[in-house]
Design goal:
By secondary structure, this protein is an alpha+beta fold. Helix content is 22%, strand content 33%. Strand 9 and strand 10 form a beta hairpin.
Length: 712
């Protein structure tokens, strides 16, 4: 495939590179920034006190502003590390470590320092096969399918059960967090749009690839893990379908309400503080099709009252549903429900303290927090069919092209989605914000509605119309009239296969989180993502290299999995926070090795050992290990351009005042140069000069007027 071509390629995403991008784009040069992260050394600066006019005092925040401005002007961001720059007859070819190649007329070197490698024999051979860097994460508000529904990743805790790639729920072993400033890959799928997916560029996503997505899905590949930064519109995200079946026959009223609040009288359950009007219930309530339908009525449009609960139906066409709910209440609970009409609304009212407690504890009190018990997800399909029927009857409708279910509860929406997938129905999901709802008005079917929360809409259309018609016992009129069926997604091999609608790069500064799970994956509302590397070392031996916070935190995380961790540091004391040091020192499975450095990584097909050397005695020791975590900071790397530029003894690139190097078309700016001062303001200034000089270079090649530079 032909390389993508730019006028300007900028290597590095710090102050120099981002400023160069801003100035290049203002000159309407097609421009891309290539970098592993965005922010450079400013990501390590807690207080930026000497940048003129800036009062935020945070290096990452300042870089977020730089990055946002560069994107605003149309800069393209490429997540990756440059491995080689080659001179072509016209321009340059830039190759990344992942093999991707790009061409440009101009290259601006502005990368400063990059993450250090060990630089020892065997390291390159075992990258990804024992040599690890755990850099996969997502923002705190990202949703994860956990326990009985969905939860922000920031609220997921150890021992929670999360949905994993094979459709099973597995235990969370650990939750990790780190500070991050740089690009996030924003992914929107075609069907599940309740929340976009935001990932750091290296985070792995489970995908399939199709030569042509809609409508044929031709040449569909097997599932594969792919870094978010490498996704494109030909990839399809996968969402697992829960196929396990576990039934529950009945519920124990006293167990749900609380034995301390109830008593038994004549084989019936009563509240402890029984009154003359108190209604009793049977000790056990059978969970059958009728109960499931009633549950659907309640979670879709029921409300808890002081004395029981109410159900609501459309008075013009839902009398049958109202009568059905009243009959179920009388049959299952022995209670007489009142059915009466108020304008265009039918209200079904039941009075019972016990039934109120049961429905509130099982399903929730308010519309925005309604949810189903986790066990309902595994019920036999015949029971789930009646549940969905009740939900649709309670707050659903038929439109010209689809069935619709509405809810204020995102938890409930996610559960309905997972149940519909068991019927091989792929629903569309759309979020309608509170602001939009207020614009639409305040009446639905004659009822006055006061909106206080976002609303979610499930749509069932296209190939799923027939199946949904069978579930709700109402045939959709479009089935007879349609001439073709459009497939916006498909189900294959127990996955919903979801086309990508849009991919963007956005800037972000703040914490990012990840989970370690028993199944090495977890599920978001629209895709399956990989967990961090640490669980791969369960019951294995790991070596961590470094002495700062990153190394200490990596060692602490590994204590939850590895049987043995060697923490190797070249000095006789750590640089990291005392509190983290103390945790690591107290861990029984950590051996601290001071005054030592790694000199070789050994193994055949996979990593087997690390050779370390004492910096004082030069005595060597072989550490049997399954993996190495490298956490040793950053270094200046200019080897990939050593034949195109002159360098000094520090490997810095020599550049003149116009940021030109010895090779026409290659410029350098910021910490990568041999300039005497390494400050943010200097880097930004040099980035601007490099971009303007590059513009002059291109204009002169085209025989056009250039900007006059006067250094006198």
């Amino acid at each position: 495939m032909a390389e993508k071509k730019f006028d300007v390629l900028i290597v590095g995403g710090g102050a120099a590179g981002l400023t160069a991008a801003i100035y290049a784009r203002r000159k309407e040069l097609t421009t891309a920034v290539i970098s592993v992260d965005v922010g450079g050394q400013n990501l390590l600066t807690e207080q930026e006190e000497n940048y003129p006019g800036y009062t935020e005092r945070s290096g990452p925040k300042l870089m977020e502003i730089f990055f946002s401005q560069a994107l605003k002007f149309g800069t393209e961001y490429i997540a990756g590390k440059v491995n080689k720059v080659e001179k072509l007859k016209e321009g340059f070819k830039v190759t990344l470590t992942n093999g991707e190649t790009y061409e440009s007329q101009v290259v601006i070197l502005a990368h400063g320092k990059v993450p250090k490698s060990l630089g020892i024999p065997g390291e390159d051979k075992f990258i990804g096969r024992g040599v690890s860097i755990c850099a996969t994460c997502m923002p705190p508000s990202s949703l994860v399918v956990v326990n009985n529904s969905i939860r922000p990743i920031s609220e997921v805790e150890e021992d929670n059960l999360v949905l994993t790639h094979d459709g099973s729920f597995r235990r969370v072993l650990a939750a990790t967090s780190r500070e991050y400033s740089g690009p996030l890959i924003k992914i929107r799928t075609r069907m599940f749009k309740e929340q976009d997916l935001f990932l750091t560029p290296e985070h792995m996503v489970l995908v399939r690839t199709a030569r042509k997505v809609n409508p044929t899905y031709s040449n569909l590949t097997s599932p594969q893990w792919l870094e978010a930064k490498n996704l494109n519109e030909k990839h399809l995200l996968l969402y697992p379908i829960v196929r396990e079946i576990k039934d529950i026959k009945e519920i124990d009223v006293r167990k749900i309400v609380g034995r301390e609040k109830t008593k038994i009288k004549k084989n019936l359950v009563l509240p402890k503080n029984e009154r003359f009007t108190t209604k009793s219930l049977p000790k056990k309530i059978k969970i059958d099709n009728e109960f499931m339908r009633l549950a659907g009525y309640f979670v879709s449009d029921g409300s808890i009252t002081d004395r029981g609960f109410n159900l609501y139906f459309n008075g013009k066409k839902e009398q049958e549903y109202a009568n059905d709910s009243a009959e179920i209440i009388e049959k299952k609970f022995g209670l007489k429900a009142t059915v009466y009409k108020e304008g265009n609304v039918i209200r079904v009212q039941v009075y019972s303290i016990l039934i109120r407690e049961i429905f509130q504890k099982i399903f929730g009190k308010y519309s925005y927090n309604k949810q189903l018990p986790h066990e309902f997800l595994f019920f036999p399909l015949v029971k789930q069919r009646h549940l969905i029927k009740g939900i649709w009857r309670g707050d659903g409708s038929i439109r010209e092209k689809d069935f619709v279910i509405n809810s204020n509860s995102l938890k409930l929406i996610e559960q309905i989605k997972n149940i519909l997938l068991r019927f091989n129905i792929i629903p569309g999901i759309r979020k309608i914000s509170l602001e939009k709802l207020k614009e639409y008005g305040s009446k639905i079917n004659g009822r006055k509605i006061v909106f206080k929360h976002d609303k979610y809409e499930i749509t069932i259309a296209g190939p799923s119309l027939q199946k949904m018609s069978e579930i709700v016992s109402v045939k959709h009129p479009k089935i007879e009239n349609r001439k073709w069926i459009t497939h916006h997604a498909m189900i294959k091999d127990n996955f919903a296969v979801l086309p990508i609608k849009k991919i963007e790069v956005v800037n972000y500064t703040g914490p990012v989180l990840n989970l370690a799970t028993e199944n090495n994956s977890y599920v978001t509302p629209n895709g399956i993502v990989h967990n961090c590397d640490a669980p791969f070392y369960k019951n294995k031996i790991a070596v961590v290299i470094g002495g700062g916070n990153s190394a200490l935190e990596a060692a602490e995380l590994l204590t939850k999995f590895a049987t043995k961790i060697y923490l190797v540091h070249r000095r006789d004391a750590f640089r990291g926070d005392e509190i983290t040091q103390n945790k690591v020192k107290a861990a029984k499975n950590v051996e601290i090795v001071f005054n030592s450095v790694p000199i070789e990584v050994k193994g055949k097909e996979k990593l087997e050992a690390v050779i370390i050397e004492d910096v004082n005695t030069k005595k060597r020791r072989e550490l049997k290990a399954d993996g190495v975590f490298v956490e040793i900071g950053h270094v200046l790397d200019t080897e990939f351009v050593k034949d195109l530029v002159d360098r000094n003894e520090l490997n810095e690139v020599k550049a003149n005042r116009s940021m030109e190097t010895k090779t026409p078309g290659i410029f350098a700016a910021g910490d990568v140069t041999d300039g005497p001062f390494k400050q943010t303001v200097n880097a930004a200034s040099e980035g601007a000069v490099a971009a303007l000089t590059a513009y002059n270079y291109l204009m002169k090649k085209q025989g056009r007027a250039a900007i006059k530079a006067d250094w006198s």
